[in-house]
Amino acid sequence: MRGITFEFIQPDTVQIGSYKWLEPWYETIKGLVGFDFQNPQISLPENRKDLISPCCDGKLHKMADGLSVLAGCSVSVIKCRELERTIGAAFTYISCIRHSGILSGGVVIFSPQIISKDDIQKIETLISHALLSISRIAFEKDLRLSEANYRKLNRELERKVIERTQDLESANIRLRKELAEGILRDEALKKSESSLKELNATKDKFSNIIAHDLKNPFTSLIGSSELLFQNIHQLEKEEIIQLSKILNDSAKGGYAILQNLLDWSRSQTGLLKINPEKINLKDLLDENIEDAGQFSGYKEIEIHSELKGDLIIVADRNMINTVLRNLLSNAVKYSYRFGKVSVNAASDGKEVTISVKDNGIGVPEENRDKIFRIDSEYSETGTENEQGTGLGLKLSREFVEKQGGKIWVESTENGGSVFKFSIPAGRN
Fold this sequence. Notes:
The protein is an alpha+beta fold. The protein has helices at 26-33, 46-52, 66-71, 77-87, 117-180, 186-213, 215-231, 237-268, 281-296, 317-333, 391-402, and strands spanning 2-10, 13-17, 41-43, 61-63, 91-99, 102-111, 276-280, 302-305, 312-316, 340-347, 351-358, 406-411, 417-424.
C-alpha cells in the first residue's frame, strides 16, 4: 500500500510529490501514460476537479476504476489497467483538502487489496496530519504575501499621514495668519482640528490592532502547535482533534483580522477603487452563508437566507462581500449556542436594503453609534469569549458609504440585533 501527494500550484495544475517509490517504473510509466517525472506537474481538466472536489471531507474515498477515472479521456483504460498491474495497484483511494474555500491538494493511495475499516481509520488519522501540514504551508504562504502587502500599504499609509499632517500644518499656518488679519472664522478652525483628531484616531486604532489584537491569534497558534508537536505520540485522538480545532480557529481568526486590516489600509491610502458590476445578490448571499458555515458549526448556529428569488444589483462585489462577511461573523460571534441567523434583501426600485438578523446578546442603546466610529474603543467579547478588533463594522460603514449607502443597527439588549445596510439600486 503506497501513495502520492498532489498540490494545486495553479487553478488547473497540480504538483505531484512523494512518488520516489515509483522510481523502478519511471520509464514504464512514461511509455504507458506519457508522464515524465523530470517535470512532475499535471494539467488537470475541469471534469477531474469535479471528481475530486467532493472528497474534501477528511475521509478516505475508494474510487472505482482507479487510474482510468483519474486520467479521464487522456489515457486509455487498457493502459491504465496495465499500469495498475505493473505497480500492484488493484484499488485506488483518494482524500483532498480545501484552503480558504479553494481546492488545495490531497493524497492518492494505491493498494493491492481492499483496505480494512481499521486500517482506513488509521490512514485517515495520518492523512489528517498530512493535510493539516499542507493547509499550514498554504496558510503560511498566504500570510507571507499578506505581510508583504501589509508592509507596502503601511508605508503608503505613513506617507499619506505625513502628507496630510503637513497639509494640515500648512492650513493651520494660513488660518492663524487670517485670524491675525481678522478674517478667520471659528468653523474653519474647528474643521481643521477635527480632521487632525480623526487622523490621529485612525493612526492610534491601526497601531492598537497591530500591537494587541493581531498578536492574540498568533500566540494561540504558536502555543497549540508546540503542544501538538511535543506531545503528538502521547495525545489521544480526541485531544488531537481539539488542538486541531484551536489551530484552525486561530488561523482563520488571524487571517480575518489581517484581511480587514489590508482592506482598511487600502481604503485609507486611496488604493481601493470602486468597481461596480452586475451582481446576483441571491448567489452572493448563499456564497457568504456557505463560507460562514465554516465557523458557525462549532456553536451549532443555523444560518439561512430568506431571499428566495434572484435580485440583480450594480455594486462593487468585493466591498459588498466584505460587509456581508463581517456582519455574518459578528452575528455568529454574539449569538448563543444553537442560535439562528437569517439574511434577507429587498429593493424598492431606488435602493436595495440587506439585513442580517440574529437572536444574540444585542447592542445597548448607548453603544449603537460607537460600534461604527473609528475614534471609539468600544468592542464586546462574543458569547463564548471570542475576541475581536471592532474594525469590521467600521470598515463596513466605510465601504457602504463609499457606494452612496448607509448602515445601521436595530437592537434590543439581550434580545438580538438586526444589522442593515442600503445602497442605491443602480441600473440593471
